[in-house]
Amino acid sequence: MEKEISQAVIRRMPRYYRYLGELLESGIERISSRELSVLMHVTASQIRQDLNNFGGFGQTGYGYNVSFLHDEIGRILGLKNVNDIIVVGVGNLGRAIANYIIAGDEAFSLIGLFDLDKQKKGETVCGIPIMHTDELKDFCTSRKVDIAVLSMPKENAPSVAAELISYGIKGFWNFAHVDIDTPSGVAVENVHLSESLMNLSYEMTGGGV
Amino acid sequence: MEKEISQAVIRRMPRYYRYLGELLESGIERISSRELSVLMHVTASQIRQDLNNFGGFGQTGYGYNVSFLHDEIGRILGLKNVNDIIVVGVGNLGRAIANYIIAGDEAFSLIGLFDLDKQKKGETVCGIPIMHTDELKDFCTSRKVDIAVLSMPKENAPSVAAELISYGIKGFWNFAHVDIDTPSGVAVENVHLSESLMNLSYEMTGGGV
DNA sequence: TAGATTGTTAATCGATTAACAATC
DNA sequence: TAGATTGTTAATCGATTAACAATC
Prior knowledge:
The structure is a homodimer.
Chain A: H1 7-25, E1 30-31, H2 33-40, H3 44-52, E2 58-59, E3 63-65, H4 66-76, E4 83-88, H5 92-103, E5 108-115, E6 124-125, E7 128-132, H6 136-142, E8 147-150, H7 157-166, E9 171-174, E10 187-190, H8 193-204
Parallel strand pairs in A: 4-5, 4-8, 5-7, 8-9, 9-10
Antiparallel strand pairs in A: 1-3, 2-3, 6-7
The structure holds a DNA duplex.
């Protein structure tokens, strides 16, 4: 790879993407970093710096073409190819995530549901039947699976993740309250709800006010 | 307030809390910043700096008492008092969050469910009946409500949040794909699933590998 | 006591902001 | 052309890491 782009920059890109999408829907064709900075409550300088990590998408004296920039950021974020996803752990949260993926961006496609509980086998969620985790190996070695959602209890998450890594899964969306160790080349994105809620609690007591 | 503590530090506290909780369960009584740093894959220096923002919890030559430190961080995070929560928007995600809160830490108590759809009124989730958002005013002005979960479609989130702010709600756990503007003294913690998934997508294509 | 480890200051590193020449 | 706005360099600010005296 060339120059390393910092996590701080990367984590801001989806937010740019969202705002540009909304501008696009409003029929706005161009926008300057100054205007966008007002909208998003960040500095214009930061916007220009962030974007220039990936290339010069703007035009001197004009600003940025909304549609073009939206498209470019989508490309940067990898939304131009389809990621096939399985959900492992179909409790309340797993079900919600499954629905979420189906209703969401077409860059993400739900192709399988698995649970550790044999009793759930055969139940369907959004028309997709739940399989037992025994069937993971067959499924993952015979089909392209890009991302596995880990939405099972934390006790099981590390061993299931290790198994999935051995089948070649390259990305985990981890909702279990545990850190998943992965070899390089395998990505983990954590959604730790409990930590998020504790941060809110902090802001409401010691912190913010 | 005294000295401002940075967001970076605060966001690490829940993770310390989690690790200390696990150590506590394993019956480990003391730990040094060095040992903890190995466990958590961070530097010992950072751990000591982070903790010393809140006070000297350790003992020279000894390290930290696990139980004491766990307790102190819990106190810092505001987990010693109960936060009463309502969920507004009882779709798949709202239901999952409701279950999550009920099953989770006793510092968070689910006391009401609301939906914008009148058809859902009377349905129960975990034994709690769903009310219509018309009833928010009565409910929020007659009871203590600390936190509102925003799990409705993004179109409705800003107006509902504004209404809740007028009733005195001081914290929002926002799952809607929109930024919520709040006056000072009102906290917002965002869980933007779409942005999280895009970050994973990025890591798997352009980024990490 | 000797060894271990904190709390804290100083040094380094990285990220954000400001400024401005280039140019559409 | 004159005004606007980028891309990019330099300056500032903040966060992380290293180092070590204090001390249990």
